[in-house]
Specification:
Layout (H helix, E strand, L loop, with lengths): L6 E5 L19 E7 L1 E4 L2 E6 L2 E5 L4 E3 L6 E7 L1 E8 L3 E4 L6 E2 L2 E2 L5 E5 L4 E2 L1 E6 L17 E7 L22 E8 L2 E8 L2 E15 L5 H11 L3 E10 L2 E11 L2 E7 L19 E11 L6 E11 L1
Keywords: Signal
Organism: Corallococcus aberystwythensis
Protein name: Lipoprotein
């Protein structure tokens, strides 16, 4: 079992326009509910997000500045939104107020989400906590790895008339941050044609896109890939060289497949000569995206982090 300490900070929502948060929000026709828990207990320790503000844009534009309560619950009009974490934020243990826990934000910022009528929607910002377990405010602990970066969509022409429902059309010409995170992974060693290989399969993933994306992308593509497993392949191709194969996230007709360019030295080998997965930054690569009813799309992948 391969584990890298990753924290998931659940940001389950925010205020809208002028309305103030209440302890028992009233949901009106056409609205859904976003909730923002700011405190969580993990492994006997409680943590709180402090000093954060949140800017939300969409059918209602809003800025949350008061995050002193343990939970904020606010109704919003249904639709597609973008949320950005701002302010001089930090994470603290509740038994040591004023002492900052070192964390690194992994998720895209801003993050995209959709809210349906009558729905309660969680939005998670993921953080890495080096060497101190996982911090996860509001949701279960995540102690696995992640892949993050930016998908750069080429400004291509619209799809043929026979395929007007291509959900990727509105992303063309845009740069969209992404993160795929998972709580655990299992590695299997093998030797094929004399080369030592490591095949890794993760537990269920959380797939997130940042920036402004359409409702169709969130509901038809991102949602279809939540909870599936990520598969990756590595091969020791020489005494000090490791080849990283494709990384595949696949759910029937929905798929994202990564081809990343990592310097072999950043992966390395263990004492027996098998690939040794560890956190590494990458500068470029490409990905293939496919969704039911859409044309396959190839995008450039820029400046990211790979932590198996």
């Amino acid at each position: 079992m391969l584990k890298w300490w990753v924290g998931a900070l659940a940001l389950l929502a925010l205020a809208c326009g002028e309305p103030a948060a209440t302890s028992t929000p009233v949901i009106r026709d056409g609205e859904g509910l976003l909730e923002l828990p700011l405190v969580s207990t993990s492994a006997g320790r409680s943590y709180k997000l402090v000093g954060a503000t949140f800017a939300i844009t969409g059918p209602q534009n809003t800025t949350i500045t008061d995050t002193s309560a343990e939970t904020v619950s606010v109704p919003l009009m249904a639709g597609a939104y973008s949320i950005q974490l701002n302010g001089d934020w930090r994470v603290e243990r509740t038994d040591a107020p004023g002492v900052t826990v070192p964390v690194t934000l992994v998720s895209p910022n801003p993050m995209s989400f959709t809210l349906g009528e009558g729905e309660t929607r969680p939005v998670r910002f993921l953080f890495k906590v080096p060497g101190d377990g996982a911090v996860n405010v509001g949701i279960g602990v995540d102690s696995g790895g992640w892949i993050s970066g930016t998908l750069v969509f080429e400004p291509l022409s619209p799809p043929p008339p026979g395929n007007p429902a291509d959900i990727f059309v509105d992303l063309r010409g845009k740069s969209i941050p992404f993160v795929i995170s998972f709580a655990s992974s299992t590695a299997t060693r093998s030797i094929e044609s004399g080369y030592k290989q490591l095949r890794v399969q993760t537990g269920p993933v959380t797939f997130q896109l940042g920036g402004e994306t359409t409702r169709a992308i969130q509901q038809q593509y991102v949602a279809a890939l939540q909870g599936v497993t990520l598969k990756m392949f590595m091969e020791a191709s020489g005494p000090s060289s490791v080849y990283l194969g494709t990384l595949l996230l696949d759910s029937q007709d929905h798929r994202v497949q990564f081809y990343l360019s990592l310097p072999p030295a950043l992966i390395g080998q263990d004492a027996e000569g098998y690939p040794l997965p560890k956190a590494a930054a990458f500068t470029t690569g490409y990905a293939e995206l496919a969704a039911s009813g859409s044309e396959r799309v190839f995008t450039e992948v820029r400046a990211g982090m790979f932590s198996p």
